[in-house]
Amino acid sequence: MHVLRWTTVAALSMLAAACGRQEPPAAPQAEAKAEAKAAQPPKAEPLKVGFVYVSPIGDAGWTTQHNRGREQMQAALGDKVTTSFVEKVPEGADAERVIRDLAAQGHRLVFTTSFGFMNPTLKVAEEFPQVKFEHATGYKRAANVGTYNVRFYEGRYAAGVLAGRMTRSDTLGYVGAFPIPEVLQGINAFTLGARSVNPKAQVRVIWVNSWYDPGKERDAANALIGQGADIVTHHTDSSAVVATAEEKGRMAIAYHSDMSRFGPKAQLAAVTHHWGEYYTKTAQSVLDGSWKPGSLWGGMKDGMIKVEAFNASVPKEVVEQVEARAAAIKAGEFHPFTGPIVGNDGREVAAKGAVLTDEQLGKMDYYVQGVVGKVPAAGN
Q: Within this chain, do residues 147 and 213 fall inside the same structural domain, yes or no?
């Protein structure tokens, strides 16, 4: 009996050992995770994107819209990008310092968002050839510097139609920043639009020689209202012109962004800018290695400029007329600078049916018929 019991136990032990050898040993869980992680490609570092703003971000205006574009890009690309910005950067030596700092801090894409940042951008770009730069509203490019702009004049023409229909005094006021082609295009398109529906309309201009100076903008708006303007608009960054119209019981057309919170009764509509899609597309091109130094001049067809935020006081038929003109521009059926166009000095600018070329628009240095006064020399 003892022998049988030993033999039985030994046999069972040998069987168990044999069965155990048939299963491969399981890999430790930690080792399996490490192997899986090693097999995955390393996660790419996010693209650092910097923005340089000429004025405060604020609640409305030029810089507000660029910052909204930055936020839209950040939301669209998620953790593939990180963004930073510097606001209230004066044009000149300070701009060069800020742009250089962003490049030195590892930003591989830098957007400089004011005309006066052009030469500082080019200078820094030469020092940092591995960094991509995009300059807003400029015309100089380099191997690592592209430019982008919007045909602001398209929205201005449609807004002029609105002003021409709504004015009672036939006098419109325009606060301008600097007498450069971009701003002159807006003044002239606004005038042509107004006179297309109201041949008696005249536009008076006051220059403040600053992109952002609420005090000067307010003073200019008050002066224009004193000269008989019942509708004022502006090519400056703050909401001061709209707010002044609200205080004085006049009408206004906002620029850059919807400013109705500053002039709920005054604002007839707003000519608004939209940069987010361009910023997203540009950053993605850097990420995938396809970026090239281009020269974009977008417009209504690209969704970069709109006339919107109409006041309830604007008659339905007027809104429809403005929107119809904007739709024709967007579809390429109408160009705001289609002749006949005559300068306010009487000389012919464009014959009947002729359309000003982009090159001609880029050199604009005159007022069209209907604008009062003379264009000052730049800087005066």
A: no
